[in-house]
Amino acid sequence: MRIVEKFCSISCPYCGYEYLPQEIFIPRAVFGCQEIPRIVRDTEGKIQYYVGAEQDLTEKFTCNNCGNTFNINLTLSYKATKDTTDEFVLKRKTD
């Protein structure tokens, strides 16, 4: 383990007490995977549907400092980029 000094925090809207996201959200609930889902894709690899738990991106939380309850809505975003630094990347044959 190491000391982390740069991080994202969630503040109580009443008193300003700070929490780390992992103190409030359960990662498996956020990603909707209490168990490995069964994913159904079409022939091009596009996901049609999956059988499993839905994502839970909202949480009602009671502040440990002031005792007030507040709502938290999590917004996730992903950005996929090509990895050009890995020497083991498989390249598609173009001829």
In angstroms, what is the radius of gyration?
20 Å
Sheet with most strands: strand arrangement: 1-2
Uncertain segments of ≥5 residues (pLDDT<50)?
none
Q: Could you state the order of secondary-structure elements as H and E?
A: EEHHEEEE
Strand content: 15-25%
What characterizes the major β-sheet?
2 strands, antiparallel
Strand tally: 6
Number of helices: 2
What number is the mean pLDDT? 84
Distance between the termini: 48 Å
Which shape, going by the Cα principal axes?
flat
Give me the secondary-structure category. mainly beta
Instruction: Give the helix proportion (percent range).
Output: under 10%
In short:
The chain has 95 residues and is mainly β.
Please explain how this structure is put together.
The chain is mainly beta and 95 residues long. It has a domain at 25-73. The chain has two helices and six strands. The protein has helices at 21-24, 27-31; strands spanning 10-11, 18-19, 38-41, 47-51, 58-62, 69-73. A hairpin with a 6-residue loop joins strand 5 and strand 6.
Helix-strand blueprint:
Elements: E1 10-11, E2 18-19, H1 21-24, H2 27-31, E3 38-41, E4 47-51, E5 58-62, E6 69-73
Antiparallel strand pairs: 1-2, 3-4, 5-6
Which characteristics define this entry?
95 residues, mainly beta, two-stranded antiparallel ribbon, two-stranded antiparallel sheet, 9% helix, flat
